[in-house]
Design brief:
The protein has 4 helices and no strands. By secondary structure, the chain is an all-alpha fold.
Length: 95
């Protein structure tokens, strides 16, 4: 099994491959439920870096992490779930 450092190196290698910065257009339809779940997964993955868990995002540049935050926010806005998501976060943080 690979160590966290080795996984980070592999992920960093993939991210620096030619064409990885090229923009792609993705047209898809997903349920609001899945929008909430997807944005939660993105937020949890981004939070891992701050907790020292060394996940895949640990080796990703800050620019890429910020772009994921923006995408997540756009998904919530387009689905009309921004307010609901904030309320769910506040409920989760009060526990």
């Amino acid at each position: 099994m690979l160590t966290t450092n080795e996984v980070g190196q592999v992920f960093d290698t993939i991210l620096s491959s030619p064409g990885m910065n090229d923009a792609v257009r993705i047209d898809m339809r997903i349920s609001r439920k899945n929008v909430l779940l997807l944005t939660h997964v993105i937020e949890q993955g981004l939070a891992e870096k701050g907790e020292g868990k060394g996940g895949l995002f640990a080796s990703a540049p800050e620019e890429s992490r910020q772009e994921l935050r923006d995408i997540s926010h756009d998904f919530l806005e387009k689905a009309g779930l921004t307010e609901l998501s904030e309320k769910l976060k506040s409920l989760a943080s009060t526990k």
